[in-house]
């Protein structure tokens, strides 16, 4: 099943219907900065953890607190498969992926939190 990449206006209703949808996501510390690709079964909770330095590791060390990209999935297996695909790509491919839906690298957290 293809991922659900959702435009800003539709995101809130999607999360309202299913707050714990599986997702692959990209965090960054600034535009064209450090990039982290992750996967989760609860996007809102996971991003909250990153933003509040509740997660030890790469994102905390590098200050990656901005959600700049995400895709939603109906199950975690598909999300994990997509995460591996994105991680296998070059940095340039990741940047192009982010900019395909978020040219300015805006923090998308508020758009999903509603």
Number of helices: 6
Secondary-structure-based class equals alpha+beta
The CATH architecture category equals 3-Layer(aba) Sandwich
How would the global form be characterised? globular
Q: Helices and strands, in N-to-C order? A: HEEHHEHHH
Task: Using the coordinates shown, work out and report the CATH topology.
Answer: GIY-YIG endonuclease
Beta-strand portion reads 15-25%
Unreliable sequence segments = 1-18
State the CATH superfamily name. GIY-YIG endonuclease
Largest beta sheet: what is the strand line-up? 2-1-3
User: What is the end-to-end distance?
Assistant: 26 Å
Number of strands: 3
Estimated radius of gyration = 13 Å
Largest sheet: 3 strands, antiparallel
What is the helix content?
40-55%
Describe the structure.
- By secondary structure, the chain is α+β, with helices and mostly antiparallel strands.
- The protein has one domain (8-113): GIY-YIG endonuclease (3-Layer(aba) Sandwich), CATH 3.40.1440.
- 46% of the residues lie in helices and 18% in strands.
- The chain contains 6 helices and 3 strands; from the N terminus they run H-E-E-H-H-E-H-H-H.
- A 3-stranded antiparallel β-sheet has the order 2-1-3, with helices on both faces.
- A hairpin with a 6-residue loop joins strand 1 (22-28) and strand 2 (35-40).
- The longest helix has 13 residues, at 76-88.
- The radius of gyration is 13 Å and the shape is globular.
- Residues 1-18 have low confidence and may be disordered.
């Amino acid at each position: 099943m293809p991922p659900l990449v959702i435009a800003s206006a539709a995101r809130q209703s999607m999360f309202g219907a299913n707050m714990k949808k599986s997702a692959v996501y990209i965090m960054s510390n600034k535009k064209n900065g450090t990039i982290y690709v992750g996967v989760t079964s609860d996007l809102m909770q996971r991003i909250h953890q990153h933003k509040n330095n509740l997660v030890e590791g790469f994102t905390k060390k590098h200050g990656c607190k901005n959600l700049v990209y995400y895709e939603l999935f109906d199950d975690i297996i598909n999300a994990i498969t997509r995460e591996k695909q994105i991680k296998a790509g070059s940095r340039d491919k990741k940047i192009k992926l982010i900019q395909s839906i978020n040219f300015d690298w805006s923090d998308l957290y508020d758009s999903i939190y509603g």
